[in-house]
Design goal:
The chain is built from one helix and no strands. By secondary structure, it is mainly alpha-helical.
Amino acid sequence: MTVHAKAEILLPHVGSAAHHIRRAVGNLLVDNLVSWFEARGPLTPVAETPWPPNAA
């Protein structure tokens, strides 16, 4: 899988201080990216997520 982006930075939410929570949220971020680029859609979509494709 290759991601081409000029200046994109993806960060999980960093509002929590517990290391196990940060690790879990970071893993969820990666799982969402993998799912997206495998054309399965996001695991945790938000209202702004353009999914399914061509739904507009």
